[in-house]
Structures are given as structure tokens and as C-alpha cells.
Specification:
about 180 residues, Immunoglobulin-like, nine-stranded antiparallel β-sheet, 3 helices
Length: about 180
């Protein structure tokens, strides 16, 4: 081989080598990724019914009555005339306890009686006391400040006992009278 042929062969190999090196610097093409499937539209759930504010619930039919006297047991009862009281607030004067009675029978012997007032919620331990008519009772000391929340609730208060009908009672003076008589 002549010198010129050797030079030409070297140049050709150099060009080929350069092209090979350039080809190795090029990134391989990225694989084409299929777009994610479009999710099916989920049918909207029906809107939940609006919660009714407890202050807008109709009052339980009935009226408050009070009886008692100086130095005697004071009691306020709520219900329809001629029927057993649905609810009662009584002062046990010797023990200075205010006793709340919700008419009905309980599945369990113990639970709670919850009062919802314009001041907040008051919960008292309750128990089935039987009687004629049967009732569930809760009590608190006459000086318990939670009693004022019940007595002075704006316009009404709720009484809830598990397994019994909810009572929506007007906050009339009879309830406050029993509490004050018990504080005597």
C-alpha cells in the first residue's frame, strides 16, 4: 500500500470512528406512553337532607302544670290534659335533689338523659325506675349550675333518652320554680 492509500484509509477510518462516536451520544428515543384512561364520571350522590336546627323543631304537644306549697315537694309536669305526664321535674326536699322523669321504659337499666339548651348540652346519668306509669329518671343537686341552663334556656329545651321519643319542651317558669323551691 502506498502512502497515499494509507493516509486515505486512515482518514476514512477516522471519519467512520467519529460518526460512530457521534451516534453513540444520541439518546435513544423515549418510548411513547399511552395516556391514562379517562375515568368514567361517577354519578353524584344525592345531597344529604339539611339538618334541622333543634330550635326549629315543633314543641311536643302539651303544657306545664305545677303543684306544691311552702315546705312541700314541688313538682312540674308536662303533658296532655287527662293523660300521664310525659316529663316531670320534682324536688326531693329532704335530699335537695332535683329529679327529672321521662315517661317510658328503657331497654337497659342505666344510660343518660341529655338536655340540649341554648347554653349547650347537659348530660345526666339516668336509670329506669319503673313505676306507674314507668319512667326513666335522672337527678342533680339543687345547687348544680347546669340546672340553670335547663331552666333559663331561650324558649325551649330538648330531652333525649336512648330508645325514647325526643321531647321538645317549652322553657316555662314552672321548671325554674321547682329548682328554686329545692334550693330554698
Amino acid at each position: 500500500m502506498t502512502m497515499q492509500q494509507t493516509r486515505r484509509a486512515t482518514q476514512t477510518s477516522g471519519v467512520a470512528l467519529t460518526l460512530a462516536m457521534l451516534a453513540s451520544c444520541v439518546a435513544p428515543p423515549k418510548p411513547v406512553v399511552a395516556p391514562p384512561p379517562v375515568p368514567r364520571p361517577v354519578p353524584a350522590l344525592p345531597a344529604a337532607p339539611p339538618q334541622q336546627d333543634w330550635r326549629d323543631i315543633a314543641l311536643t304537644p302539651g303544657t306545664w302544670t305545677w303543684r306544691g306549697g311552702t315546705g312541700e315537694t314541688s313538682i312540674a309536669q308536662y303533658g296532655m290534659a287527662g293523660q300521664a305526664a310525659q316529663f316531670a321535674v320534682r324536688c326531693d326536699l329532704p335530699s335537695r335533689m332535683v329529679i327529672f322523669s321521662h315517661g317510658g321504659t328503657a331497654g337497659a337499666t342505666e344510660g343518660s338523659m341529655t338536655f340540649t339548651t341554648s347554653f349547650g348540652t347537659v348530660g345526666l346519668p339516668a336509670r329506669y325506675v319503673g313505676g306507674q306509669p314507668p319512667a326513666i329518671a335522672a337527678s342533680a343537686g339543687a345547687r348544680d349550675p347546669r340546672l340553670d341552663q335547663i331552666a333559663f334556656s331561650r324558649g325551649r329545651f330538648l330531652v333525649d333518652v336512648a330508645g325514647q321519643s325526643r321531647l321538645v319542651l317549652p322553657a316555662w317558669p314552672e321548671v325554674a320554680r321547682v329548682i328554686e323551691d329545692c334550693r330554698g
